[in-house]
Amino acid sequence: MTQIFFDILGKYATVIIDFYRENQTWLNIIVLIYGILLALAHHNVKRLELHLQELTGVSDMNHIWHLIQNDKLKDLDLEKFKKELRIPILSSPYHFYFYSVTSISILHILQKKYPGSS
Fold first, then answer.
1. 19, 51, 66, 75: which has the fewest C-beta neighbours closer than 10 Å?
2. Number of domains in the chain
3. Is 44 exposed, middle or buried (0-12, 13-18, 19+ CB in 10 A)?
């Protein structure tokens, strides 16, 4: 495996390895913090789903997605939901980046998570 790494990167392999060895603590801390934030964002999506189910009284998330898309959930109080979250970020379970809590990002995340809703 190491030989493949050296073959692909050539002379840059040693530079990359030296850089990692010099900064491995900081790089690992960054990766750890990112992983914790990503897990928290995934948890926030589950909390959002429960919040929407309680708000609408509907358990089918595809139906809830259509309600949000058609602007039938006027009382969707995002500010109240944001205040309930310690860190107001969301992340689709199929991606590794974050979204802020907005109605557009909620629609996007639910569409990715429940493909029958598109």
1. 75
2. 1
3. buried
Is the pLDDT score of 76 beyond 70? no
Under 8 Å between Cβ of 106 and 68: yes
pTM: 0.78
Domain extent for 59: 2-117
| DSSP category for residue 60 | -
Kindly give the residue spans of alpha helices, DSSP state H, lying in the chain.
2-9, 12-56, 61-69, 78-84, 103-113
Give the model confidence (pLDDT) of 41-72 as tens digits: 999 999 988 988 888 888 888 888 887 777 76
